[in-house]
Every structure is written in C-alpha cells, then in structure tokens.
Amino acid sequence: HKAELQRSNFTGADLSGVDMSKGDFLRTLFVDANLSDVDLSKSNIARTDLSGAKLNGVNLKNAFMYRTNIAGADLANTKNLDQVQLDMACGNAETILPEGFTRPAKWPCNGEE
Fold first, then answer.
1. Helices H, strands E: what count in the chain?
2. What is the pLDDT of residues 6-58, one digit of tens each?
3. How is 62-73 classified by DSSP, letter by letter?
4. What φ, ψ does residue 85 adopt, rounded to 5°?
5. How many beta carbons lie within 10 A of that of residue 50, not counting itself?
6. Would you call 100 helix, strand, or coil by DSSP?
7. How far out from the chain centre does Cα 3 lie?
8. Alpha-carbon gap, residue 104 to 80, rounded angstroms
9. pTM (2 d.p.)
10. What is the pLDDT of residue 96?
11. What distance lies between CA 101 and its chain's CA centroid?
12. Hey, which residues does 79 pair with through a beta bridge?
C-alpha cells in the first residue's frame, strides 16, 4: 500500500486531485470531503463513509468497496465504478447512480458494524 490511514478522519477536508491509489482507508471518514478528481484506484475503502462527499471525477477502478457508505452520494460522474462495487456498498434511495447502473434490490447494510 502507498498509505495506511485506517480509521482516519478527513471530514470536510479538501483532497481534490490527490493520488490516493493503492491506499488502505478501512473505516475512514470522508464525510462532506472534497474528493473531486482523487485517484482511489486499487484502494481499500471498505466500511469507509463517503456520505456527502464530492465525488466528481473520482477514480474507483478496482477499489474495494465492501460496505462503503455511499448513502446520498452522487456517483454520476465517478470514473471506473463497476456494478459489483456498487452492489457491495451501502447506498440508499438518495444515492445517485451513474448512467447504465442498476440500483441493488437490497443494499447489503442494515446498521451493524
């Protein structure tokens, strides 16, 4: 990994344009953070909270998104997101999906850690 920042708090941070590829961000808070054009390719963002984050242009290629909180997130302009990543994440009715994606019939999360 390039960086190991598990359980870090980046709430409200402006990280736009940062190369965070191959990082380990397990259970990290990115609530209301600006992640525009951030490279999260090949990163572990499992159980990370992206609620309210700006995700325009974020690269999610091969990012591990197990139970990643994308509730209310706007994923419309993300790069390299795939349906498998979306299906294992935790969204809600307010989550905006990219064109061509299918909302999971049931998001896998129900509040337990």
1. 1, 0
2. 999 999 999 999 999 999 999 999 999 999 999 999 999 999 999 999 999 99
3. T-B-TT-B-TT-
4. -60, -45
5. 29
6. coil
7. 17
8. 18
9. 0.91
10. 94
11. 16
12. 59
